[in-house]
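Revision sheet: structure tokens.
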Amino acid sequence: MLFKTRHYDQLGIIKALIAWLALLAVLALAIWLRWYYINIIPRGDYLAWAKTRYLGTIAQTYLQWAVAISQQQVITGPTSPPGYVTFIVLMKVFGVDSITQLRFIQAVIDSTAVIPLYLLLRWLGTVRWVAVATGFIYAIFPAWAIGSGLIFPDWITSFLILWTLVLLAYTSSYRYYASMLAAFFGGVCIAIGTLFSPDFIVWLVPFIIWIILTARVWSKLLCLITLSLGILLVKFSWEYYGYLLHSHWISVTYIKQYYAQWQRYPEKVFNVILVRWKRLIFTSARIPGNKLYFHALVTTLQHYGIFIYIAMIIAYRKNAKVLALVSLPFVYGMLIVAFSFHQQFLHTRDIILTYLLASGMCLHWFKQYADEVPTKTNIMTFRIIVAILALYLLYATVKILLASMLLIR
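Predicted:
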């Protein structure tokens, strides 16, 4: 019995090591693909290209603010969101001067989001290969691969959302110090998110509710305290940093304008919300396409993702924790787009993030079902699904590498 236990322990360690090595390979591929997109979108001047897209002159504005701050000039105009301008300033301090370098740093940071995605799916109970395969899809999906390289503050939101979800889940740990650390860094994530996108403060509500409902009795108060400390640490660090003296959040003005519209034209605003929700659920904002756009993958998640999400709700209807963690990005994206004047493009990724998580959970559920009811039909169907997924991932890898080699030449 002892020998068998040691054998299983060693086997588990080997499997975990292989999974992490595979995840590192996915991370490298994500960085490589984002580097490819940065080099081809656009092929010319980025600021000139941005002016012809929905980004308008906002990219140039952020860069000008960053230059002014680095020269210790006081900015008198609105500097919202202040965190992104500060991020650009810090990059300048570390020698990142060109727009291409800045975009690449953003892309590398976003690529590491495959790690919290893997951790989240493992916490939710999926097998390792499902978590790695889901991370692969995140790595190649254009909304993240292209969006992370844009000069725009919301490029970091998906990265922060995934880490917030992981830390949220870990607050229910049986070890009190682990839950306290998770709550503390969760507060840090939320506070940093508000500096990039003030709407990120919304995540504080589910975080508090989750702690109250799931944390152990003796750690609820400690988690709430450490959550507050994490937020205050970033807040006081920001104030001490003192670069942006006028760091008011411009979204407050948007909210006032929005409520004024509600009072004057309630029916019109309600119709706008319905149109936005319909577009978010069934379609997506247009992203510059090319031969590495992966149309089949994009179509599956953007147009049929809602049905995958519904299937996941049915499959895990008795598991409240799974439903909550998978649904939170969806709820966040719907609320922010409906009740603010924000652009639809990057918040569309929040909805797709739920579809991506739901896809991984559905694949895991079908594996469990095939194991519990091992009929020939179930086993063959599952094997066909896995074979199609494996072939597509292999096809995507080869396609990325070939296109990148042509770019280098």
